[in-house]
Amino acid sequence: MTLAVSDTPSPEPALHVARCSKSFQGPGQEKVRAVDDVSFTVPAGQIVALLGSNGAGKSTLLSMVAGGTLPDEGRIHVSGADLTELPSWKRVGHLRLVRQNPEYSVFPALTIEENFALAAASTRRRPKMRRAELREEATKLLEPFGLNLESRLSALAGSLSGGQRQAVAVAIAMLAGTGLLLLDEHVAALDPRSARLVSDQTEQGLRATGASALMVTHDMTHALERSDRILMMHRGQLVLDISGPDKDDLDAPALIRRFETETGGRVSDRELLS
Ligand SMILES: Nc1ncnc2c1ncn2[C@@H]1O[C@H](COP(=O)(O)OP(=O)(O)OP(=O)(O)O)[C@@H](O)[C@H]1O
Ligand SMILES: [Mg+2]
């Protein structure tokens, strides 16, 4: 079942996805409807968690918003601007995507400072930052991670560990001042300590800057604690959209039960959480 959500954008939400669909078909393979008529909004300043089992379509959806995948149907608005057909490199002023694999989150051949400078130059808000100002901002954003990265601004990003790279990627997203952060399991490949650190600082940074986020995670407890709203996908469709008091009353087992009821079948906890 698909949730009935209005197609009309409300006044400038951070993200409005309107009736988006995407199918894939490899040679000689059956067509997969990876995203099937999905509509939702992320209101400005909210953190929205996107959950669902493997293959539910979460990454495809984020990729459509980030510009890596063109939807077959539907429109994507970010802060009121229709970005549906805009190439990904032209979206950097509007949004940032941090993926699971730290290999993709920074430019390894550039220093930490150069990574910051590139991001600042590509945004509409901070295109002409002076070097001293840039270093000061980078220091301010990196310090809270407690990884001493602020004293290594001249180090090559390629020399950093996975957790350090994700921390730099999140700090850069904050510097860029983009209104929308797309997080595709951005701490899932990290050791538990780094994962907690990066995820805590991501949330604090988002709340401090008033930025919005669409955050894919398999960690339901984390999603319930940290997000303002929970979306759940199943086989390409959006099957749950929970916020407000309804969400406050939920714990992970209750959320799984809601998901089972909506999908009409038993989905194992492991499948959902893996
Ligand atoms: N480039 C592609 N070519 C063919 N099929 C694809 C492609 N990308 C995704 N798919 C298929 O689309 C469906 C949704 O995949 P997607 O990666 O969006 O799921 P997901 O919810 O992110 O899963 P996971 O939790 O495992 O990351 C899957 O059946 C997947 O095999
Ligand atoms: Mg995925």
Written overview of the protein:
This protein has 274 residues and is an alpha/beta fold. It has a single domain, classed as P-loop containing nucleotide triphosphate hydrolases (Rossmann fold), CATH 3.40.50.300. 34% of the residues lie in helices and 23% in strands. It has a six-stranded mixed sheet, sandwiched between helices. β1 and β2 form a beta hairpin. The longest helix has 18 residues, at 192-209. Adenosine-5'-triphosphate (ATP) is lined by residues 24, 26, 32, 34, 52, 54-60.
Layout of helices and strands:
Blueprint: E1 15-24, E2 32-42, E3 47-52, H1 58-66, E4 73-78, E5 81-82, E6 95-98, H2 112-122, H3 131-142, H4 162-176, E7 180-184, H5 192-209, E8 212-216, H6 220-226, E9 229-234, E10 237-243, H7 244-248, H8 252-263, H9 269-273
Helix pairs in contact: 2-3, 2-4, 3-4, 4-5
The structure holds adenosine-5'-triphosphate (ATP) and magnesium ion.
Residues 58-59 line the site of magnesium ion.
Structural class estimated from helices and strands: alpha/beta
Distance between the termini: 23 Å
CATH topology type: Rossmann fold
Biggest sheet overview: 6 strands, mixed
Using the 3D structure, state the CATH architecture: 3-Layer(aba) Sandwich
Radius of gyration: 19 Å
By CATH reckoning, the class would read Alpha Beta
* Element-by-element helix/strand order: EEEHEEEHHHEHEHEEHHH
Strands of the biggest beta sheet: in what spatial order?
Answer: 6-7-8-3-9-10
Helix percent reads: 25-40%
Question: Are there runs of 5+ residues with pLDDT below 50, and where?
Answer: none
- The CATH superfamily name is P-loop containing nucleotide triphosphate hydrolases
Mean pLDDT: 88
Strand content: 15-25%
The multimeric state of the shown protein is: single chain
Number of helices: 9
So what's the overall shape?
A: globular
Query: How many structural domains can be distinguished in the coordinates?
Result: 1
Number-wise, the strands total: 10
Ligand identities:
adenosine-5'-triphosphate, magnesium ion
